[in-house]
Fold this sequence. Notes:
single chain, TIM Barrel, binds flavin mononucleotide
Amino acid sequence: MSVDLAVRVAGLELKNPVVAGSGEATATEAGIRACLDAGAAAVVAKSVNESAAARAQLRAAEYVVLDEHLQPRPLGPAGRTDSLFCRSGLLDVELDEWIDTIARLDRDAATRDAYVVPSLIVADLEEAARHARAFEAAGVRWLELNVGAPHAEEASAGALRTGVDLVARVRAAVSIPLSVKLRAGDSVADTLAAGADAVCLATRAMAFVPDLETRRPLLGTFAAIGGAWALPLSLREVAKAHLAQPEASIVGTNGARDGYDVARFLLAGASAVAMTSAVITNGPAVLARALGELAGYCADHGVAARELVGEAARHVQTYEEVAIERRL
Ligand SMILES: Cc1cc2nc3c(=O)[nH]c(=O)nc-3n(C[C@H](O)[C@H](O)[C@H](O)COP(=O)(O)O)c2cc1C
């Protein structure tokens, strides 16, 4: 089966639209290599910054899989009706070493037509700009900046900053392609105006789950939640952004669990799709399986992956138009 899966993101040619998203599965060299081996066109490394509090937060990280009745079980294989409910923090690494590691991994990735993408979350903005420059100087070819981290509101003050106003400073620091990860509702137009080459839509929501047995909060805190149920919400976010800015390069995130979800994100207007929770719970093999499913879907429909981008969004109607068309 020969199917053209190539897409264009942030001005870069990707061999396919499947990206391993930033998270615990991309926190180590071995984890990143496993995602590359599974065929991901890009692997976004776990985010870093210089804040000690953000690192301490990773040491206090906790994760549970929730079934459809919100019954928790330990982290492990998850199905389509499960959610991942967790607290996470940022990598506790020596940043100069991490920059060297990512640059080396990205050089290796280039030999297999793939990318390894570092991710920054701002604590101090000047430090973020400095780290961005250091990644570029080390030879990295694509940088991601997450300005929509859901945990920011619960983290220690200043550990994780959010907001589109952070983009311009980091943009000014580097000339490599910059993708910016946003919260639902953040302004895509302002992000592009600040110089982002792509937007990644959109980060997870924060949640609260009382435990019926203990009558206490599950995990003890508010925490971020995601699942396949989030996909339609993310798809709307992507479709609205695509319709408002048809030329914008969009990476979909939050809810993709298989290759058909990747196709749905493309149809909504994304050019690539980050899968994170599925890789954490079920392993990097989900990336290879998603690629096979997407290739099968494209073959069945006789289309190249890039032809799917935005197709469904372009056919969306207003309530009024649909009433007229159906003579209601
Ligand atoms: C345990 C965990 C850790 C994460 N850590 C990061 C991170 O460090 N940086 C980041 O930009 N996104 C992070 N994310 C967000 C994911 O990359 C992704 O945007 C989100 O989980 C929604 O996509 P999914 O449904 O494929 O998981 C994390 C997600 C999870 C579940």
